[in-house]
Amino acid sequence: MTTLITGIGELTTNDPAHGVLTDAAVVLDGDRVAWAGPAAGAPDADERVDVEGRAVLPGWVDSHSHLVFAGDRTAEFEARMAGQPYTAGGIAVTVNATRDATDAELAANLARHVSEALRQGTTCLETKTGYGLNVADEARSATIAAEVADEVTFLGAHLVPPGADAESYVDLVCGPMLDAVAGSVRWADVFCETGAFDEEQSGRVLAAAAQRGLGLRVHGNQLGEGPGVQLAVRHGAASVDHCTYLSDDDVAALAGSDTVATLLPACDLSTRQPLAPGRRLLDAGATVALASNANPGSSYTTSMAFCVATAVLQMGLSVAEAVWAATAGGAAALRRDDVGVLRAGARADLQVLDAPSVTHLAYRPGVPLTHAVWRKGIRVV
Ligand code: NIG
């Protein structure tokens, strides 16, 4: 079954061969893009959908979320808005609620948030473990995530569980926990930050994960300058996420590496941190991704459009740079070339905005602009 999407007023392809086209069309064949280009050259298809001048772009690629969780942290958010600082310690509240939840409750909560994201155009989503923090709860979190998410990351090294000895806990993460999750996850991550894991402990986790063939990611430089970025680059991590506080050396290291700087503007706002230096990173030549960091503590939103608008309005990115970072940038952070792009052979993931151009994502912040969404060739909105 082929579908011709025509009447596209502005088509963002992220394909260097086409860039942004006006008066364009896309043909889907099953779960793949068969063709994208100027409308005049479009081939015939079994069905035709006219989007009447609207803007079309790849579906969002959200490369950072924490959606295997139970419970709620509204009280912590209210305290923060009243002046309390965000600390890693709040993670333990969600760990307790997650351990108390049944598999069915965790799966239903995850599915609800993934569906919320999809309705807003997120067609490829990574999510993490990290609220289990023992072998059994990390293993079931990974299994539940693997049922729904496109990409799953093991984050046993999210926090030393209250009362545990840090060194023994790192040994547990590097041995039995990694063994228990390895079949369900592609990535391993570590929260390298004061109050979580130090540089040596984080390095041990990354080395153990790499030994098992997992790709690496790092939470780094979220609450202050620290070793996270340099550690990620040294270990060849695909991505270092947060990057809110960066030294000049950190920026240079990112610019000279394949490690993507994944920025989480909704988290910076919700934790009342400064916005990550997106402009500085791009000017230095680093690859930048934008992601939601959807989680109940530091960033409780699944809206990639909100992240794009914030990156434009507050971080100094152009609309084109922010849209690229939230699509192709996310794909780069996940080391994928089949999503975040509209060209023949790519996954048939795209969104239609109820607007004539992607500029409206920042020009009309907060307005729900999702008109239609296809994921794997199936129209879901
Ligand atoms: O990316 N920084 C560590 N982990 C999450 C926060 C998790 C939480 O507070 O529950 C983050 O912001």
TrEMBL record:
Principal subcellular localization: cytoplasm
Query: Which residues of the sequence carry a binding annotation for Fe(3+)?
Result: H64, H66, H219, N293
* One Pfam family cited in the UniProt record for this chain: Amidohydro_1
Binding residues for N-formimidoyl-L-glutamate, per the UniProt record? Y131, N295, G297
Against InterPro entries, the record matches this protein to: Amidohydro-rel, HutI, Metal-dep_hydrolase_composite, Metal_Hydrolase
The Gene Ontology biological process terms listed for this entry are: L-histidine catabolic process to glutamate and formamide; L-histidine catabolic process to glutamate and formate
- Record localization: Cytoplasm
What's the protein called, per UniProt?
Imidazolonepropionase
All copies of the Amidohydrolase-related domain together span 240-360
> Which UniProt keyword terms apply here?
Cytoplasm, Histidine metabolism, Hydrolase, Iron, Metal-binding, Zinc
**Residues noted as binding 4-imidazolone-5-propanoate in the record, renumbered to the chain:** R73, Y131, H158, Q222, S298
**Cofactor note as given:** Binds 1 zinc or iron ion per subunit.
Q: What is the lineage of its organism?
A: Bacteria, Bacillati, Actinomycetota, Actinomycetes, Pseudonocardiales
Q: Which reaction does it catalyse?
A: 4-imidazolone-5-propanoate + H2O = N-formimidoyl-L-glutamate
Cofactor(s) the protein needs: Zn(2+); Fe(3+)
Pathway noted in the entry: Amino-acid degradation; L-histidine degradation into L-glutamate; N-formimidoyl-L-glutamate from L-histidine: step 3/3
Instruction: Provide the function of this protein.
Output: Catalyzes the hydrolytic cleavage of the carbon-nitrogen bond in imidazolone-5-propanoate to yield N-formimidoyl-L-glutamate. It is the third step in the universal histidine degradation pathway.
Its gene?
hutI
* Molecular function as annotated in GO: imidazolonepropionase activity; iron ion binding; zinc ion binding
Q: Which family does it belong to?
A: Belongs to the metallo-dependent hydrolases superfamily. HutI family.
What EC number(s) does this enzyme carry? Answer: 3.5.2.7
Q: Which GO terms describe its cellular component?
A: cytoplasm
**Record: residues binding Zn(2+):** H64, H66, H219, N293
